[in-house]
Design goal:
The chain is an alpha/beta fold and 251 residues long. The protein has 8 helices and 12 strands.
Length: 251
């Protein structure tokens, strides 16, 4: 094996060979979802695509939406998200959207709201490998389209100084108070990673993150929701995928 291949410094042709794809298969969009519930979310999301097949790399699914090639993958955490973003960044995919859930640090955010962060603070341990020292921005046009489309579905869409952190378990009450003191409004595990890779490869990226945990009120995903909150959470989780496809699959 050559040194070039040993360090995974592969070009588009190498990756297409590995994926069993040709140039016509290169996706117009990649939708990635940060979630533990891989089996449930994958079945749910792939139901909206035609001609679905799993690529040779596990949990990467190629299909078509309104005739355009799309890749969907359920990722969890920055190390998994970066693989998808890097691979299809090399192949030249023009748009990528992160969906999933986030924790609210701002008490004005409610379960079922969607945070569409323009700026993410990178504390997840991966973005710095792509030249990001502190904060990194989403694509403003794609982000604006996402907010507008969500509001058209009567889903409240908010901006936030958003934190991407490394582990849902490695956060204490003291950390949450510190984050709020720093002005962070929400937190997830993947958005800054996607934004950093997008900046490196020049594709447009944004995130549509449904508020689940109310960290400002010391409520996690382990705590029960009211009937109204559950309905709002379900509606937002459905909407973010539909919106992601609409704004990312285009000319």
């Amino acid at each position: 094996m050559s040194a070039r291949r040993a360090v995974m410094d592969l070009g588009p042709d190498d990756w297409m060979d590995a994926l069993g794809m040709d140039r016509r298969d290169i996706p117009h969009a990649v939708i990635m979802e940060g979630s533990w519930w891989r089996e449930q979310r994958t079945a749910w999301r792939l139901g909206l695509l035609d001609g679905v097949r799993e690529l040779p790399f596990p949990d990467m699914f190629h299909g078509r939406w309104k005739g355009s090639p799309v890749v969907y993958s359920c990722v969890y955490g920055a190390p998994r998200a970066v693989e998808l973003a890097h691979l299809f960044g090399v192949l030249g995919t023009p748009r990528m959207v992160m969906i999933g859930t986030c924790g609210a640090l701002d008490p004005e955010l409610a379960t079922g709201d969607v945070v569409v962060p323009m700026t993410a603070v990178a504390r997840e341990g991966v973005a710095h490998l792509y030249g990001v020292a502190d904060t990194v921005d989403a694509d403003p046009a794609l982000t604006g389209l996402g907010r507008t489309a969500l509001e058209g579905r009567l889903i409240r869409a908010s901006d936030s100084l958003h934190l991407t952190w490394s582990s849902i378990f490695a956060q204490s009450g003291a950390m949450v108070e510190e984050w709020r003191g720093l002005g962070y409004g929400s937190v997830d595990m993947e958005a800054a990673t996607l934004y950093a890779v997008a900046r490196r490869f020049g594709f447009a990226a944004t995130a549509l993150l449904v508020v689940w945990d109310q960290l400002d009120a010391d409520r996690s995903f382990l705590d029960p929701l009211s009937e109204r909150e559950s309905a709002a959470l379900d509606a937002a989780n459905a909407a973010v995928y539909e919106v992601a496809l609409e704004i990312a699959v285009g000319p």
